[in-house]
Specification:
Strand content of chain B: 15-25%
Strand content of chain A: under 5%
Number of strands of chain B: 14
Shape of chain A: globular
Structural class of chain B: alpha/beta
Structural class of chain A: mainly alpha
Helix content of chain B: 25-40%
CATH architecture of the largest domain in chain A: Orthogonal Bundle
Distance between the termini of chain A: 48 Å
CATH class of the largest domain in chain A: Mainly Alpha
Number of domains of chain B: 2
Strand order of the largest sheet of chain A: 1-2
CATH superfamily of the largest domain in chain B: Periplasmic binding protein-like II
Helix content of chain A: over 70%
Radius of gyration of chain A: 26 Å
Number of helices of chain B: 9
Number of domains of chain A: 2
Distance between the termini of chain B: 83 Å
Oligomer: heterodimer
Number of helices of chain A: 13
């Protein structure tokens, strides 16, 4: 093989591919090993985390004999033995879901709206200006959102409502702004992937731009837009730090949107360092973590389901 | 081709296992070396070796300041100070991962810890009291009323002699040492009603400062006496919340800051703990950081909370 390489006057592309040793096959193998090990590491990590969290999360039910029904539906949480021990996590489950859905309610119209603006209405400067701005928003750490929420949004709510500012509403706004860039950029990608033919056909039938957007583009992109919103919700569900700073972390069920609440993540981050390993309190926090993991799997299944129905 | 593929997969697994094994080995080595050095006998002037001190975030600033001074005298000694919370400190020292575990409460008060294996070193005392927003208009309260305020029996400051303003509770999370101490000695074991819950004392201070009618609890060191601060110390049953009143046992809400070792300390651990109890630390660093020297206490308390004169 090296003989041919030296003597022939083959094209330059040919030479680029063959290296000095001519060990094409060995290189092929090396590449394959690298790629396979990357894939294997990710799979092993996912399985390991799932297994670990499942084992840890089930400890409180198996070792400590906590009743699953009581854990999921109980209303009082006092696991560290002040008075009666109780372990009802429903207020936190409720809190996590409310923050997630309220944030999606806030972010979905805004995100999809700006995505339409970017892709259909002001194509040139929308993509030149708005897209970079949104990319910057994605990169802002969540603690910064939390700080802004604490110093701007909480006092604002305190002045305009009867509450003290720390509330579901503050959590909803902070998380809503946080997931807005995710929703916007994925929606924009979805809208961009709508074939030009469909739009042309609509215009050809005499539809206005608004009619085209409303009747043609949005329905065609709907599954992808739903995916964008669900991805944003998955992020909202797992967000801990920013939420913890503004939501007030009250263990009681909120009575109104301006009332304090707590989420699964905020309770874990608040209490984890105070518990000793293997204690009931510690095990219960792992069980809260298991709920978070199960929910993130549910979100992924929903996204898969929606994607499989995608038309474009 | 099929054979080649399975070969590649096998390779992959060998590689991954190799990486994992290497990681595991690395950890083992590092913990071995720290244990080995920690066990060194070093009763002479300068000691060497390396240990990890960690746990309670309330004790972390004092520990860090003491380590800094200790290392100036003993440049060969390597002491890492870590946070993580009192529960982490106790668990890690019991498991042997920390050489000294810091905690705000007695190891006996926590389940899952073999307290008999741990040796307690009470390095300082911290006094705490209710921190109230100035607009509430109450800075002296009877214990009975304090319990009513925190259990939600009264919800307006006017009922305990203050302004007509709603009471907003600011709690610490379950399991927090400050919460446990305040509940036990401030509220006589009553469980506080629900309210905002914050983990950091600085956040509690900020909320109490900014929110009309808010009340929480803080260690003495978090109060400043400047007139523009909205956060006021609460006197209980007419007793001012001062270091002096804590040392005499008149003011009830205080706790030890503990440094636990697994078994009797030796080598660098012992040298450092001796240094913590020395006059150099107890009379300058401890009060500077807002704690009360353990040596000044005229009363003592056991793990069950029984107080007796010294």
């Amino acid at each position: 093989m090296s003989n041919i390489n030296h003597s022939s006057t083959s094209s330059s592309t040919h030479r680029l591919i063959k290296n000095k040793n001519g060990s094409v096959k060995r290189n092929e193998l090396r590449g394959k090993v690298v790629v396979y090990s990357c894939a294997a590491l990710i799979i092993i990590a996912t399985i390991a985390i799932t297994l670990f969290l499942t084992i840890k999360g089930l400890q409180s039910f198996i070792v400590n004999g906590v009743n699953v029904g009581e854990f999921l539906t109980g209303l009082t949480w006092s696991p560290s033995g002040e008075g009666d021990v109780s372990y009802g996590a429903f207020p936190f489950i409720f809190g996590s879901f409310s923050v997630t859905f309220l944030a999606a309610l806030f972010a979905a119209p805004l995100g999809i709206g700006s995505a339409i603006f970017m892709t259909e209405i002001a194509k040139t400067w929308g993509q030149k200006v708005l897209q970079p701005v949104i990319e910057i928003l994605v990169g802002i750490p969540s603690v910064v959102y939390g700080l802004i929420g604490l110093t701007v949004i909480v006092p604002l709510i305190r002045e305009h409502s009867s509450g003290i500012g720390f509330s579901l509403l503050a959590g909803m706004i902070v998380v809503g702004v946080m997931i807005l860039p995710t929703v916007t950029s994925i929606s924009a990608d979805a809208l961009k992937s709508i074939p030009q033919d469909i739009k042309d056909a609509s215009y050809g039938l005499g539809a206005t731009r608004w009619q085209t957007i409303y009747k043609v583009i949005l329905p065609a992109a709907m599954p992808s837009l739903a995916t964008a919103v669900v991805l944003g919700m998955a992020r909202a569900f797992g967000e801990a730090l920013a939420v913890q700073m503004v939501i007030g972390n009250s263990k009681a069920l909120p009575e109104s949107i301006t009332d304090q609440a707590a989420t699964l993540t905020s309770i874990i981050t608040l209490s984890m360092g105070h518990t000793t390993y293997g204690s009931l309190h510690n095990n219960l926090l792992w069980s809260l973590g298991l709920i978070l993991l199960v929910m993130s799997y549910v979100f992924i299944i929903i996204i898969r389901f929606i994607s499989s129905r995608r038309k474009v | 081709m099929k054979k080649f593929k399975s070969l590649a997969i096998m390779f992959t697994f060998v590689l991954v296992m190799g990486v994992l094994a290497a990681c595991g080995g690395g950890n083992e080595n590092s913990s071995n070396s720290s244990n080995g050095n920690g066990g060194e006998e070093g009763s002479s002037e300068a000691v060497s070796g390396s240990i990890i001190v960690g746990g309670s975030s309330a004790l972390q600033p004092l520990a860090a300041a003491a380590v800094e001074q200790f290392q100036q005298n003993n440049p060969d000694a390597q002491i890492d100070v870590q946070g993580g919370g009192s529960g982490t400190g106790l668990s890690e020292v019991a498991a042997g991962n920390f050489d000294i575990g810091n905690a705000d409460y007695f190891a006996e008060s926590k389940e899952g810890i073999e307290a008999s294996e741990l040796v307690d070193h009470k390095v300082a005392v911290v006094g705490m009291t209710a921190a109230v927003n100035a607009e509430a208009g109450v800075t002296d309260i009877s214990k009975e009323d304090l319990i009513k305020v925190f259990t939600g029996e009264v919800t307006n400051w006017k009922d305990v002699g203050g302004e007509d303003m709603e009471i907003q509770l600011v709690n610490r999370p379950d399991g927090s040492g400050t919460r446990a101490t305040f509940n036990e000695f401030g509220l006589d074991g009553a469980t506080p009603a629900e309210g905002i819950t914050e983990d950091s004392s600085n956040t509690v201070k900020k909320i109490v400062n900014d929110t009309p009618g808010a009340v929480g609890y803080l260690a003495f060191s978090y109060f400043d006496d400047s007139s523009d601060s909205n956060v006021k110390k609460m006197a209980i049953d007419g007793v001012e919340a001062t270091d002096e009143n804590v040392t005499t046992g008149d003011f009830p809400i205080w706790a030890y800051e503990h440094m636990y070792t697994k078994g009797e300390p030796e080598g660098l651990e012992k040298a450092f703990l001796d240094y913590m109890m020395s006059d150099e630390v107890q009379t300058s660093l401890v009060p500077d950081q807002g704690y009360i020297p353990a040596s000044k206490m005229k009363v003592e308390r056991d793990a069950e909370g029984n107080q007796s004169d010294l």
